[in-house]
Specification:
Layout: H1 2-17, H2 23-42, H3 44-63, H4 74-77, E1 88-90, E2 93-95, H5 98-109, E3 113-123, E4 128-139, E5 142-149, H6 157-169, E6 173-178, H7 179-184, H8 186-198
Parallel strand pairs: 5-6
Antiparallel strand pairs: 1-2, 3-4, 4-5
Helix pairs in contact: 1-2, 5-8
Length: 210
């Protein structure tokens, strides 16, 4: 406000002194507009009006469907990448779910030799691949794979069947069980797996090299 008053006084002096004739009439409307805006901005009545408008805007946003609301920027809404598999430490092994923990406990209590989350290198029609199996189990001279199938396996049935066939070609039996069944009835799952494994011929022993 003081700055506007000083500008108005300077313009008037320049006009009256003849240094800038006609300047005052041209700048007067601009100065008046600046004074009016300043007064409106600092007037308590208009402050209440602005506050009321902001409150109404917040209420309107709350009533709008979420799809119509302004979305936060991509930087704020971006989530950190999630790991592809869970990693549950159990007696020095890595398990992928609580259902696998249940199966591991049953196998351990029965003294059965097994590997968990085992990485296996195998041959395919075109090249070599590395695949992970849930449990690789040795029982009475027979190797078998016990798979705990979670919901994500519903979208990978064809790939699972292809992989299981590659293991069976090597004489390794593969049995799959739903994760819910493994969690609720792990003893029954292990019994079923071992019974099916014993129906398979023993895995040929590797030749002894002197």
């Amino acid at each position: 406000m003081y700055l506007l008053a000083l500008i108005a006084a300077a313009v008037t002096i320049l006009d009256l002194s003849g240094l800038a004739p006609g300047l005052a009439p041209r700048l007067t409307p601009i100065l008046l507009a600046g004074i009016i805006l300043y007064l409106l901005h600092n007037d308590d009545h208009f402050k209440r009006i602005r506050a009321s408008l902001r409150g109404q805007n917040r209420k309107l946003n709350a009533l709008l469907p979420s799809t119509n609301r302004p979305r936060p920027s991509a930087k704020k809404s971006a989530r950190p990448p999630q790991p592809e598999y869970r990693a549950i430490a159990w007696h020095g092994l890595t398990l992928r779910s609580q259902s696998e923990v249940k199966i591991a406990k049953v196998l351990d209590n029965r003294g059965i030799l097994f590997l968990a989350a085992a990485k296996i290198r195998l041959s395919t029609e075109s090249h070599r691949q590395t695949r992970e199996v849930d449990f690789l189990i040795l029982h009475q001279g027979r190797w078998g794979i016990l798979e705990v199938d979670g919901p994500h396996h519903q979208h990978a049935q064809q790939a699972d069947q292809w992989r299981d066939a590659r293991f069976r070609d090597q004489g390794i039996a593969v049995s799959r069980f739903p994760a819910d069944q493994c969690y609720r009835h792990p003893d029954q799952v292990v019994d079923s797996f071992l019974a099916a494994l014993l129906q398979q011929p023993p895995t040929p022993a590797a030749p002894h090299i002197e």
